[in-house]
Design a protein that fits this description.
Length: 171
Amino acid sequence: MAKIRVVVVDDHTLIRQGIVGLLDSQPDIEVVGQAGDGQGALDATTTLSPDVVLMDITMPGISGLHATRELKARFPAVQVLILTIHDREDYLYQALRAGAAGYVLKGADVQDLLAAVRNARRGEIYLSPSVTKALVADYLRRARGGEDRASYDGLTDRQREILNLIAQGRT
């Protein structure tokens, strides 16, 4: 199988180069480009045709969220993973609405980042465990309050049990 082609986008050079070194050390991943801002991400994706773009949110010029929307509009097959320090729900929801295939916190374990890249390549969504917990807790809060009641009622007992376990932080 061909290597996963990745472009790493972060405005902090030291962090970006550290991520590049980590990803390049994997036998199934190849970093084909780097960028320091959203415009650079768009340019690199246009010329390098990566499978996955690893994108920071807060950067000068075009933000990572705006660049994600643009990338998904221009290159729907390219998977964008958000890699950020922000664990705020509003950023998470904006990233998912923009078309991101995942949301990984910079404080995550190395294996979480690698799993996210590999999942994105397969077209799967990846959320950091702490982000997943917050997302499920928010969903359950809304469901219990009557919001989205119809979709919650449509879950089986087992599905509800699993959602509750995830909200408790279990995998």
